[in-house]
Fold:
Amino acid sequence: MSYTWNYIKKNPKQTKRLVGINHEQLSQLIEQAKLLHHQHQEKIQNQKVRLIKPGGGASQKLSIEDQIVLTLS
Structure:
């Protein structure tokens, strides 16, 4: 986990100041985003014709949580 997401988890009262929504809303947003991301990935995998082995390519540098916090900030 990154510094930003760890800071928000440790200091939930600062969430509104940092990203503009309260901690509960951010948690709900992250859970929904994870669910949608997982569903989207499954859909892509089912339609994809593989040329490269699974796991090939560059890995993501940011977690889903960090991507959402970055988008909101």
About this structure: The mean pLDDT is 87. The first helix runs from residue 3 to 10.
